[in-house]
Design brief:
single chain; mainly beta; Immunoglobulin-like; STM4215-like; 2 domains; seven-stranded mixed sheet; six-stranded antiparallel sheet; 13% helix; elongated
């Protein structure tokens, strides 16, 4: 759920006008998604008077993480005044984790799930998982395991934002059948390349869907294995530079 709240003042004092509605001048919408594709609240919807001069309207988000445009229609002394605003909707379901770091981790997982030959990559991943508590993850061909590393507090602007560099690691796993003529290292190179392309190829992926400033590739880490083995793994290491509201890890500066 998202809530619009407006305080109405006249000459500096709280004031109750004749009418406060969500309504665009052309009557097309009260609240609409920022791209204009989805009508969320129809035109002519009244805001509820919460207290003198304070009006609010709560509505159901069609999805989490959306941004909206809404138009306010205020009738004062027979005059009609329109104002247009933008706002961010609810980030996540009540009680769910919605920290910026967690949202970036989820973006990384969703991005990696798109690696497939049909999408122009060299490989198709089997699955993308996070570390299983206590027991770890069984080795699986074309499996990607995503986990967080350390973080550095790079800079801050008091009362505005804090800038961080958060490390993430993606373990790329391959398993070759006995008698295969393809070297394990060759398979690992191919899969790691796909992972790096997926995470950094476009500006949308570099910014983790608009949450971050940038995604920076670091050197890969080879995980030692028996040269005679039919399986292997390599770590793709990235750093994600992002900004939160000052001392507020739940809120990106772009929310």
């Amino acid at each position: 759920m998202s809530t619009i709240s407006k305080t109405i003042r006249l000459d500096g004092s709280l004031y109750d006008p004749s009418s406060v509605q969500l309504s665009s001048p052309d009557g097309a919408y009260g609240v609409v998604t920022l791209d204009g594709a989805t009508l969320v609240v129809p035109s002519g919807t009244d805001l509820v008077r919460a207290s003198p001069g304070v009006y609010a309207k709560t509505f159901t988000d069609p999805a989490y993480g959306l941004h909206y445009r809404y138009s306010l229609r205020v009738v004062h002394a027979g005059a009609i005044l329109y104002s247009t605003y933008t706002m961010a909707g609810a980030l996540n379901a009540p009680g769910a984790s919605n920290s910026v770091i967690e949202r970036m981790a989820q973006n990384i997982i969703t991005t990696l799930q798109g690696i497939a030959t049909a999408a122009g990559y060299q490989n198709t991943v089997a699955d993308v998982v996070r570390p299983a508590p206590g027991v770890g993850n069984q080795l699986n061909n074309m499996r990607l395991v995503v986990f967080q590393g350390g973080a550095a507090r790079e800079q801050e602007c008091p009362e505005q934002y804090t800038q961080w560099l958060q490390d993430f690691h993606v373990m790329c796993e391959v398993v070759e059948s006995e008698g295969s003529a393809t070297p394990v290292d060759q398979r690992l190179n191919s899969l790691a390349c796909d992972v790096e392309r997926a995470l950094c190829l476009t500006r949308t992926s570099q910014t983790r869907g608009g949450l971050a400033e940038d995604t920076i590739l670091d050197a890969r880490t080879t995980i030692p294995c028996d040269p005679q083995a039919h399986d292997g793994a390599v770590l793709v290491n990235i750093g994600v530079r992002y900004r939160t509201r000052y001392n507020d890890p739940l809120t990106s500066v772009y929310d």
